[in-house]
Amino acid sequence: MSCKEFLRTLLLAGAAALLSQAVSAQDVVKVGLILPMTGQQASTGKQIEAAVKLYVQQHGTNVAGKKLEVIVKDDAAVPDNTKRLAQELIVNDKVAVIAGFGVTPAALAAAPLATQAKVPEVVMAAGTSIITERSPYIVRTSFTLPQSSVIIADWAAKNNVGKVVTLVSDYAPGADAEKSFSERFKAAGGQVLEQLKVPLANPDFAPFLQRAADAKPDAIFVFVPSGQGGTFMKQYVERGLDRAGIKIIGPGDVTDDDLLPAMGDAVIGTVTAHLYSADHQSAKNKEFVEAFKKANGFRPNFMAVGGYDGMHLIYEALKKTGGKTDGDALIEAMKGLKWESPRGPIAIDPETRDIVQNIYIRKVEKKNGELYNVEFATFEAVKDPGKAKK
Amino acid sequence: MTASMANPLVAEVAGSLAIRARWRLPEIVFWLAALATIFLLPGRHLILTEIAILGLFTLSLDLILGYAGIISLGHAAFFGLGAYVAGLLALHAIVTEPVLALVVSGACAAVLGFATSFLVLRGSDLTRLMVTLGVALVLREVANRLDWLTGGADGLQGVVMRPVLGAFAFDIFGHVAYAYSLAVLFVAFVIARRIIYSPFGVSLRAIKGNPLRASAIGIHNSRRLVAIYTIAAGYAGIAGALLTQTTAFASLAVFDFERSADVLLILILGGIGYLYGGLIGAVVFKLMQDWLANLTPQYWQFWIGLVLVLIVLVGRERVGNWIRSARAAAGLLLSAKRL
Amino acid sequence: MLTILFDGIAYGMLLFVLACGLAVTLGLMNFINLAHGAFAMAGGYVTVVLVNRAGVPFLAALPIAFLSAALIGAVLERTLYVHIYAKSHLDQVLFTIGLVFMAVAAVDYTMGSRQVFIQLPSALQGQFNLFGIGIGKYRLLIIAICGVLTIALQLALTRTRFGTRLRAAVDDPRVARGLGINVNGVFAVTFALGSGLAGLGGALGAEILGLDPTFPLKYMIYFLIVVTVGGTSTITGPFLASLLLGIGDVAGKYYVPKLGAFVIYTMMIVILVWRPHGLFARAAAR
């Protein structure tokens, strides 16, 4: 074509591009996803990112007439980074929601920003009770440790476990788990012989396991962050504690689905209480696990399901507000939402904005050549005990 | 004093020192550009604040590494102490005015520096590396242990900052925080510059170059090293306090080994021994890291590693030569224009 | 209590195998190789792949881990490290940290971020009781292998010609060159050996310390502690230092769990203040 025609086409194309930009800028809803993609918590970040991607891919990016965009940022689980990234996302990228938060300090660091900017903070991973109390804009879709610890205390008290040694990692979630377990267990008539705290960095569990074994309990209540469960179980088996009749009980972090397939047969028979098992027998979960495995090559774990449900929450809230991104409206929409998640039925408590879910007692068994946490008892609609008391 | 002043040699030396200490054009341009960013780049103030704080922290390391030859992998100990002191002062309303709290935090860090300075006087480079690292790690454990005071792994919660000098309140956009940090950085820099160009500073360089010879001409090595270590610790404490004040938060991560290692990296990257190395290194490193992390949130470490490896292979002298020739060309251009 | 002693010795021996390569490189070539942990990680992952995916028996995989790490070390030494020898310590720090970052990210990309486990043969799992001491079979294997290695290294250093050349090169490279010793060749072989040992240590340590992409960064501190406390001019120095630190760490955590993490750092500071060049160093003629 002639030079003039070429220039005209170019101008038209440019105008069209600009117009579409202008139009789309108004109709885009951005979600800021702050996750530990590097560092020691990287596996948490990977699981959640994969789950979020899966949800968006399955449900499309059109929500309530707007286009949803997810911006992923790596905070390496350092709270200073989290705060700065959250601030940038809110101020520069103008996100409607901030989500993710792989560890408790990260979620706490962003809380004042959520309050000041009136931006909902969806916690998909962190598990300490007080998080939702730090800001009226925090909603949680992950779990709280007391939820699992209290249930396993109940179960243990009813199943011939009288004396327990607690062994937890020396940080806030560990202290949370230990406290809620001990209170409930002692109230049910059990005895806590010793309370051991393992440093978070470099856990060689040998001396602590030895000390626990020396106290001769019926069981050891264990909580370690999701990356360390494997090493712990290996060393537990190495010392022959299973044959000495000392059971392992605790929240399911120690038999995390992410690591379970590789742990080896020695962990068969371990009983834990947790919110999610990849083996959960429901049609929704089977579909979820299959799709996840196909897209990523590894199994989803309880962190992934927290991410998946977090996205569902955001989508549903947007649909309820008709696409409005006003923080207060979104929070109101999120309160009281109930739905069927791959883990089972869950709901957001309207008073505490925390998650209410089933907790399952499971045992590690081998199915089709792979290790799974097989659920055999269900405790329904468990609220966070830390707040339920008040 | 009068007798030595009468000596013309002393006057000559003082004169040459004064000439070296004069502000040069590139320096003025640098600070004017920094000032301009307050008005020209309002959207980037958050990361610029981080750069300013990092720059101050790296500057403090340059004081001991570049000018006294003390290599430290635990400088975060002073950074962290300053951070927590500032946080606690604000949290318990002991000192609510930020600038005053800043000075107090710096002083506390300086005291710690003084107390631990005796550990770094003896031994080889490797010993110093490990001893300083050990101090930082022990301090981290102490902070973790005293969680009733520090909040432990959750970090210091509920810090609320009062307005700077009673007038400038911290805002969510980070404007006040940046202006405040930049001001603190500038003041600290000017003071450090005075110290470096003073006879004391020159004696430090003598000690770094050849400790035996320096002590032979009557310089008391240990005393001066202790002095500069204390000052550097104070600076690091001020940087840490700035971090707490601008983010209203302090966590155990301030003591991390990664923080000490990062600042050492940045200083080596920017160049040791000329004060601006820390600042330039901080700008380059932080911007590069941010850009890479946006491109690939998971694997940005790989590219940073590659950049570091390439820089060393190519040779920092060669890069320095390129910069020098660029500067010379610019100088020629300017002088040509004047003609 | 003797069980704790046993555990501490095993832990210490493991640290020694991991760290002695670093001690030799530092002492011999005056080269700060912070990427040492990456070679250990390489050996660990090679073993994981061989044992878990290819079904190679664990004991057979160990020498392969050693050789592959040694090979990687030799290649890197000839291609990259050789350019860095003459540069300052600071440049070496920058370079090797850059290498570690690359290694960590590369392993994260290829093998995933989660921790990996080696499927041990059942013969190595569990404990048996000997005079009331619980002897972990795997830890016993570690002590056995590391003990043999230490003796072999010490003999090689003192009784072989290569060892003599190595010691000469450590004491005074210039004079050694003058006597016709191929110091560069000695460097290359020693570096490869040190990396190989690290690889072996990584393979052995995966079970106890846990293997994931952040391994080099997590454990670098411990290697450095061993090397600094033990001094770099002998093999026995780091050996005794690792034993001391291993037992101290494990015993500290057992008897005074509240102070658990302090013990190792405080011990290091105290020792270094008392003996700045390490417990067993002779002042090198440099």
Provide the residue-averaged pLDDT of chain B: 87
Q: Kindly, what is the distance between the CA atoms of the first and last residues of chain A, rounded to a whole number of angstroms?
A: 77 Å
- The largest beta-sheet of chain A arranges its strands as 2-3-1-4-5-6
Count of alpha and pi helical runs of chain A: 12
The greatest inter-chain interface is formed by: B-C, 42 and 43 residues
How much is the radius of gyration of chain B in Å? 21 Å
Enter the CATH topology name of the largest domain in chain B: ABC transporter involved in vitamin B12 uptake, BtuC
CATH A-level architecture of the largest domain in chain B: Orthogonal Bundle
- Distance between termini of chain B? 47 Å
> Can you identify the CATH class of the largest domain in chain A?
Alpha Beta
Q: Domains counted in the coordinates of chain A: how many?
A: 2
What top-tier CATH class of the largest domain in chain B fits best? Mainly Alpha
Could you please describe the fold and organization of this structure?
The complex is a heterotrimer of chains A (390), B (339) and C (286). Chain A has 390 residues and is α/β, with parallel strands linked by helices. Chain A is 42% helix and 23% strand. Chain A has twelve helices and 15 strands. Chain B is mainly α and 339 residues long. Chain B folds into two domains: 24-283, ABC transporter involved in vitamin B12 uptake, BtuC; 296-339. Chain B has helices spanning 2-5, 8-20, 25-40, 45-68, 76-91, 98-117, 125-145, 147-150, 175-197, 199-209, 211-216, 221-247, 257-270, 276-295, 300-314, 316-338. In chain B, α4 packs antiparallel against α12 (221-247). The radius of gyration of chain C is 19 Å and the shape is globular. In chain C, α2 packs antiparallel against α3. The A-C interface holds A 38-40, 42-43, 45-46, 196-199, 201-202, 204, 206-208, 210-211, 227-228, 230-231, 234-235, 237-240, 243, 258-259, 262-264, 266, 298 and C 3-4, 7, 11, 52, 105, 108, 112-117, 119-120, 125-127, 134, 136-139, 207-210, 212-214, 218-219, 222, 249-251, 253-254, 257-258, 260-261.
